[in-house]
Amino acid sequence: xxxxxxxxxxxxxxxxxxxxxxxxxxxxxxxxxxxxxxxxxxxxxxxxxxxxxxxxxxxxxxxxxxxxxxxxxxxxxxxxxxxxxxxxxxxxxxxxxxxxxxxxxxxxxxxxxxxxxxxxxxxxxxxxxxxxxxxxxxxxxxxxxxxxxxxxxxxxxxxxxxxxxxxxxxxxxxxxxxxxxxxxxx
Amino acid sequence: xxxxxxxxxxxxxxxxxxxxxxxxxxxxxxxxxxxxxxxxxxxxxxxxxxxxxxxxxxxxxxxxxxxxxxxxxxxxxxxxxxxxxxxxxxxxxxxxxxxxxxxxxxxxxxxxxxxxxxxxxxxxxxxxxxxxxxxxxxxxxxxxxxxxxxxxxxxxxxxxxxxxxxxxxxxxxxxxxxxxxxxxxx
Amino acid sequence: xxxxxxxxxxxxxxxxxxxxxxxxxxxxxxxxxxxxxxxxxxxxxxxxxxxxxxxxxxxxxxxxxxxxxxxxxxxxxxxxxxxxxxxxxxxxxxxxxxxxxxxxxxxxxxxxxxxxxxxxxxxxxxxxxxxxxxxxxxxxxxxxxxxxxxxxxxxxxxxxxxxxxxxxxxxxxxxxxxxxxxxxxx
Amino acid sequence: xxxxxxxxxxxxxxxxxxxxxxxxxxxxxxxxxxxxxxxxxxxxxxxxxxxxxxxxxxxxxxxxxxxxxxxxxxxxxxxxxxxxxxxxxxxxxxxxxxxxxxxxxxxxxxxxxxxxxxxxxxxxxxxxxxxxxxxxxxxxxxxxxxxxxxxxxxxxxxxxxxxxxxxxxxxxxxxxxxxxxxxxxx
Amino acid sequence: xxxxxxxxxxxxxxxxxxxxxxxxxxxxxxxxxxxxxxxxxxxxxxxxxxxxxxxxxxxxxxxxxxxxxxxxxxxxxxxxxxxxxxxxxxxxxxxxxxxxxxxxxxxxxxxxxxxxxxxxxxxxxxxxxxxxxxxxxxxxxxxxxxxxxxxxxxxxxxxxxxxxxxxxxxxxxxxxxxxxxxxxxx
Amino acid sequence: xxxxxxxxxxxxxxxxxxxxxxxxxxxxxxxxxxxxxxxxxxxxxxxxxxxxxxxxxxxxxxxxxxxxxxxxxxxxxxxxxxxxxxxxxxxxxxxxxxxxxxxxxxxxxxxxxxxxxxxxxxxxxxxxxxxxxxxxxxxxxxxxxxxxxxxxxxxxxxxxxxxxxxxxxxxxxxxxxxxxxxxxxx
Lengths: 186, 186, 186, 186, 186, 186
What we know:
6 copies of one chain form a homohexamer. The first copy, chain A, is about 25% helix and about 40% strand. Chain A is built from 5 helices and 9 strands, in the order βαβββααβαββββα. In chain A, the strands form 3 sheets. In chain A, strands 5-9-8-7-6 form a 5-stranded mixed sheet. In chain A, strands 1-2 form a two-stranded parallel ribbon. In chain A, β6 (about 120-135) and β7 form a beta hairpin. The interface of B and E includes residues 3 and 40 of B.
């Protein structure tokens, strides 16, 4: 039964508004025990000549990219070893923390570090979660499959990645998985 | 500059409204590149005699508990081996997935499984993230410290837990950590 | 899905607001093919120091009485031949139009007119409809039962009454029924 | 002084909105003793990409036809004995209740029943009232004129019809009039 | 932090809305100790088919001209002795009150009165203030420069003019200045 | 017909809200050619737990004093030569500009300057105008009466004062009047 009204300068496309509609609905259901179907969101867009702060017109800023899409594209580029595309998605001060490794800041470092650990690896996704928490945080989880250095295949190894984004760019990646668990199994 | 208005049946205490204010602000900043300070949230509470659906009065439901608090209390109870308190926080169909273990459904199972793996373990938290995504999801991450079965201490082992909640109760816990990484290190 | 907000000076009791909630819901469903359950009404009441017209505070007026209740009370008083109570419910310029009678303006006239037509009559109600249409109009329909002048009983005779009200008082009553149909039946 | 805001998915034409504006004004004046001129109605239409329920876009449904127009068209068709047009305006489960007749369900039944009662009949309307009351109810009243079976003309006979509509179709017609009163008069 | 919403029939151009945005912001800051930057104004324009009073559509009226512009144009026309243009800006019942003069009602009177007092005069503006106070009042102040009848120049003489406007036309001008102060100085 | 809604943190007393209601009405009538009676203002006050910026509660600030009252009290104190009261109403950087005088910054300076100019002076007010224009500006105008140094009385001398206020304190006073005009008259 809760009703949300969002007043916004115009300039957002239908997909942006869809994301706002969903995110505001989710926000309400964190506290109010209503089914999502019971939450209504109305977005009121205003042309610039109908919005004033300090008595002056203001312009709306372009929407941030969908953070889950940014992360998905980054992970695909890394799997495909397409470093230029991946690099374009990371921001200043980027760092990565992988299990059993020192923090890394360059994508090429990660490629070098991974080389002796597996010949190839592919992610099967079970889900993405997006949180605003200071900046934006994206969680993605699922299972890894691939080929060990000795040529034997593996799959079904659980993983979870946590990404921090600022202004639409990835600034941090933290990775947890069960690779060591597998390797240490008898 | 975005302005959010939430219309709600009355019956929420200030802490609930604070959580709504923060969650709605976060939701907007996922799409609109505004600083949180530029997002205004107004909550309009209505007494039951001012809200009608189908021409009839409706009652507001009690707020859901803060999911981060539920998870924190659960983790504390488990660390303290206070199973009755922890049990009261889990819901129907509860299951746990730990690294290198089969899925478990009883808290006592987990205690038994952990016994040969470490004498004790304590969590130091770096952060909690809460997402509405179907039900509610809570992520908590940080480092583990404790004592191995042979009496040697450990600390600084990274972990992340993912909890699913339904109607305020924990229904699923997924755990990832670097314990195997540590044990498998030479 | 339609949402109605009504801004009103305070001073209405819960029953008045219930009537407003229902009437506004009805109004929407005349045009929008939504189930009543899909129509939300929010009533925003304002204390006098929060409402200004021409820069000056205004006071709210007392609610009009429920017109269906006024009519029901009038009809009960007339059945019970309690003319003072009935008289208090009629307003200036009151007139009545009964089948086969000239227009009447005094309740006592009606009593006199009815006397040779039946010993007694009782109304069984099937429904009341209330319309705002200039002033307020109340329809009530159902069946008549009673005793003819010759002592034989009757029942199941269809009737419909139409009442006009101004400022909460009845100013006109139009009556249709099947009494003549019955009497003229062989 | 009351102010009504209606939030609606777009897709209604100016005439629909005019009907909503009038119906909402009427609804308020049933309870609040304000002149219609003191009631303001603002209709806020939203494109589909600005309205979300359950985080998903919804589409507005086409407006219901003006029930008074439907009834007027039905009555005209019946007077003109244009049964196909009249039939297209009635819905499932249609029934009619005329004075001194058993309930009828087919328009042709009514024509047959009326044949021995009058050669022709025309309605002069004094007013239509429209109510939402579960479904939609239309009252129309006025006087009948026409020609008796024996060729003598009549006029000024009071009538009132009550119509129930569901989803824009007539599902019930109840008729009261003074025909028997006239015929039984000496 | 205050937020103003203005609901208005459409028909105002961006400059009119800019003036409304500024005037509403100013109005708030007279009472609330907020910086103008903390005041948000949202103007909601409604097409005529979305606004009803008394259940009927209403049309918006054309905006009043910017009163500061009207006054500025009047003063420029008077300085240029362009009486037809100035005359077009004054309304019924116009009167002027200058220091040391009887009230005047005709622009030509003023020209005649001024002739022996200075050869020419030019206004340098320091500021305009606009107030709604019954009708509209415009204050303009600054300094006068020009040439005395004897050919000597002057400048820096303070003046203030107060104008009353009704329906966009000037109906009264009151003038104060330090000319006498100057002339009476030794 | 314009409708203004003001959303405000609670903490304003009825007189403050009255001033807001009037000022917002005035603001609208500067642009929209509506009678003040056609302008509705609704003030929505929010308790602090219903208003969030940056996801955090904010407190409302105390209302600014009525600037016309501040000016009136200042002028009365000065007439009564009650310098401590007047001084308490002026703010940092206060300055005064009187006809034929250098700018003054101290109230005692003004008293000294006025001494040889008149024995006493009293203001009769014709009107106050208040404008928000950067800070707040108050105009007051009317006529002066009093006694010249030689003991002869005077009255009916036109004056206008312009006051600037910052945060409720007077920071500047500009005075124009016809005293020199009178003195220079033959």
